[in-house]
Amino acid sequence: MPTRAALIAGVSGLELTAAEAAFFRECRPAGTILFARNLNSHEQIKRLVADIKSATGADDMLFLIDQEGGRVQRLRPPLGRALPPAAAYAALYSTDPKAACHSVRTAARLVADDLIELGINTNCTPVLDVPVAGAHDIIGDRAFGDTPAQIAALGRAVCEGFLAGGVVPVIKHIPGHGRARADSHLELPVVSTSRAELEVTDFVPFKLLNDQPAAMTAHVVYSDIDRDQPASTSALVIREIIRGHIGYDGFLMSDDLSMKALQGPMRQRAEAVISAGSDVALHCNGDMAEMAAVASGVPALGGAALARFGRATHCLGVCQPYDRDAAELIPASVLAGYIG
User: Fold this and answer.
1) Residue 170 near residue 214, CB atoms below 8 Å
2) Strand pairing partners for 282?
3) Distance CA 126, CA 128 (A)
4) What is the DSSP letter of 238?
């Protein structure tokens, strides 16, 4: 079987360029991720997905998107339905936990259908971060509450909905971004909270959902554990916390290497996340020169990483029946009842 690169790459626009097609043929990344710049119409999205799949020559490729709902939603009307933010389900949970879990699970099942129709099979959600007062609002209303138990309950319901629709959910940002006082897209956050406290707060939702097929690391320094490296490039955090204390043995991807939380050349960043213990490096912006540099710094997908990739892709396309007509009513109903 031809080798696959330990990489998830972006593309630059609405169509696959000749250079990108050549890159995907040669590199054969494990997946690709789509952003608003790649989305113009349903037919165009299907063509782009088909062209990437054809260039890569693999049926088990992951096609990722960030379709959380609220302000993080790449498919917006008219391309996709308006979806509530996580905070809307958190508000419902405060009065009726059972209804909130049912609603978010059913909405996820509905969105899975929307994504599969376009050829997209992986959704980078749910956010399991536990926000605290004074933290940067990069998480904000993307959180499913402010207690680990509630976040885990709603997060599991989201995962169940997507898996029931044959879509791989990606829990994020392991082991927790909720305390960060900076946006890791722009700078490197440092969390000084003790490991002991993190173990009974921030790490809890991830531990409770450690059976999920895929996860994304956080570009956050936890100074009581590793004062020098963020989780994404820290072998100590990945070994002792993510794989150890949390017990996560699923497919682990870095957060985007092009974020300003990281420093150094792209190849060095890619080497760092793989060396630390991520199964694949994620590069999102579609810059061809950067992608080539990242690809030069990652190995072929093999060993335990390949096995975890296989377990994740095994979830693809395995759909369970549901009442679609009833599900269609849920996102608008939850939005109507939410006062942000």
Assistant:
1) yes
2) 8, 256
3) 6
4) I
